[in-house]
From TrEMBL:
SUPFAM superfamilies in alphabetical order: SIS domain (SSF53697)
Protein's UniProt name: Tagatose-6-phosphate ketose/aldose isomerase
CDD domains reported for this sequence: SIS_GlmS_GlmD_1
PANTHER family: D-GALACTOSAMINE-6-PHOSPHATE DEAMINASE AGAS-RELATED, N-ACETYLGALACTOSAMINE PERMEASE II COMPONENT-RELATED
Domain SIS: 38-187, 203-350
Recorded GO MF terms: carbohydrate derivative binding; isomerase activity
GO biological process: carbohydrate derivative metabolic process; phosphoenolpyruvate-dependent sugar phosphotransferase system
One Pfam short name: SIS
Gene Ontology cellular component annotations, sorted alphabetically: plasma membrane
Gene3D superfamilies per the UniProt record, alphabetical: Glucose-6-phosphate isomerase like protein, domain 1
Keywords, comma-separated and alphabetical: Isomerase, Repeat
Amino acid sequence: MHSNGRWPGESRTAREIGQQPATWLRVADAVRRARPEIERLLDLPGARIVLTGAGTSAFVGEVVARDLARHLGRPVEAIATTEIVADPAAAVVDDRPILLVSFARSGNSPESVAAADLLRRLAPGLRHLVITCDPEGQLARRWSGAPDAVVVALPDEVNDRGFAMTSSFTGMALSALLAFGVDIDVEALARAGSTVLDGAAEHAPAIAGAKPARLVFLGSGPLRGLAREAALKCLELTRGQVVGLADSALGFRHGPKSVLDERTIAVVFLSTDPYARQYDVDIARELVQSLGEERVVVVGDATECGGARVWPVPALPGSPLAGHALLAVIAAQATALACSLALGVTPDNPFPDGEVNRVVRGVVIHEFDPAEVG
């Protein structure tokens, strides 16, 4: 990544954003070694596949579910651990076997461990694929060696030490796609990622320099999960001083559009799906009319978005939409970091008072009795 004044600085967060293309190659190697064991888990006809995690880890599931479903030819559901823990019975609606895929940076949040334990009680025969950045975390240790589980530990550099998840998000998403056999040219993906990073020195400080009070992120289909992750990065790295909001291209008009004002910048993640792309282009053009060309950013290979500013993302023919999301999220991460620096926030530790923690604290896991389900 290039440097421009305080961008990107020498923070750990900046290095973890910048290292992502190189880490993807090592992630692919780690998954390749685990593939024989993963294939054993997949031999479960009629199983529901449930992707789970909390926060950023939940958004991994939202981003990859569509491509996994298309590749496997069966439904794939993304259900956050926070939802499973609060209402476990809702996650087990019939007697079909479940293949649970857990995403976790550390695996030490209470919900990460509890969600899998609850589903094991409610769904006998549960199989479990754990994709984690920390082989010493509680989730990995609990399931390592279990007969119907496989733990895939990603390379150590993917285990972000900064406050916000960046490398871990893209690393886990890529590993899920590869684990289930989705065809991705990882070397081409890495080259494209470096190109997106090259644009960060120009585009991210320009967005931060406009001093937005709100950043609205919009994406269609699985890119709505990407939009949710982008909004979270904005909130985390600016200590909530820049409010991040997320929606779909079509859903935004149904009330959330009320948030637009002169201190709002809208970011539209342009889908590579030709049909969905039409709706993204429509909302980008509409936003240009509402906010002006300088306050609308299109992340993608846009040429038809009404004069909006464009952050180019190389097209990868044949790549799944989730692969495109791994490239586009770099723009969101870099923007959040630039806003953090512009506000004088320390991105590696935006909450020095501990109000928000890297690993969630304060969650009490209450005893669950299936007989008492209403």
